[in-house]
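Suppose a colleague, Dr. K., hands you the sequence of a protein chain of 320 amino acids and asks what its three-dimensional shape might be. Before reaching for any lab equipment, you can write down a predicted structure in C-alpha cell form. Begin with the sequence itself:
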Amino acid sequence: MAFCRYLIKPPCPAGNKSAYFFENKLKDLSLSILLSYNHLINLTNTGRLMNKTMKQITLLILITSSLFISCSTNSDNKTKSVPVSVYSSPIDFSESDFQAMLNTYPVNGTPRFFASVIRKSRREDELPAALLQASEQASKYIAVKAVSQFYTERINSSMRYIRNLEVVWDRGLALDMIDRLSLIAVFKDTYGTYIIAELADENLPAIPYSTKWKNGKPEWTNVIPEIPGYMVSVGISLQAGYVAESFTASDNQALEDLARQISVDIVTGKRQIENAIGTASIQQNLETSKVVIPGFYILDRWRTPNGRYYYSLGVAPELK
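The predicted structure, expressed as C-alpha cells, is then:
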C-alpha cells in the first residue's frame, strides 16, 4: 500500500513520492474497482451472487479504502512541515539572498541536492518532477558511468571537433531514491519550482572547502580549487532555456571534465590521401573516456547577474 493514497487524491510527493509515477494507472484501477463493486451489487440484487461472497468482497473494499485514507492523511501531515516560499516575480539567483539556495555543501554529513523544473500547466505537477530530478542527482552520487568522446580531425590547416558525452546511471535506483529523499524547502516563482532535498540515510564526510567570494563572484569560477582527497571540476554552460536546463548543462560539463581527468585513452592515426589538387594531410584523434565515478557531487552553483552563464562546481573522491 506504499502508493495507496493516489487512488483518492492528487499526488503529494512529500510522503511516498515514487507513487506519483503510477498515478494514472492507479486511477484506472480504482475506477475498475468501483465499477466492479457496483456490478456486484446489481448481481446480488438479482440473486446471482451468494450473500456470503458479497460480504467478503464488501469487507475487502472497506479495509482497502481505510488504508487509502490513512496513507493519505500521513502524507498530508508530512507536506505541512515543508516550508514553501512563493514569489510573484522570477527569482534572481545572482542575488545573495537566493545564492544560498545553490550551495549544496553537505550539512552534518548529509548530502543535499538542488533541483528545479520549469513551470507546467498544472503547477501541482512541478514538485514531483523536481523530486525526480533530485533523485537522479542522488543516483549519480551513488555511482555514475560516464562515457566521453572527443574527436578531432585536421585536414592541412583546417580543424573539426566533435564532442559527445553519455551519462549512464541506474534509473531504477533513481526511482527508489525518491522515497529516500527528504524535502528541506520548496520555492516557487513565475518560471517554475525549485527544491532543496537531502539524502538523510547517506553519510558524506566533511569536504575541506568553503566558497570564497571576490569581486562579486565565487573564486572557483576563475580558478579551479584544490581540495585534498577530491577531484574537482568546474562546468560552464551558456543559458540553455530556463534555470533547470542551464544548470543541468553545467552539471554535465562538470561530470564530463571529471571523467576526462580519471581515464583517457587516446587513439591517434595519421594518413595521407591523394586528391585532384595534390596531397592532403589528415590527422585524426579520438579521446575516449569510460569511467565509473562514485560519489559525484555538485558542491556549489552560480549564475552571472545577466543570466547568460551558468557554473557548477563538481567533486568526487580521488580513486585509489
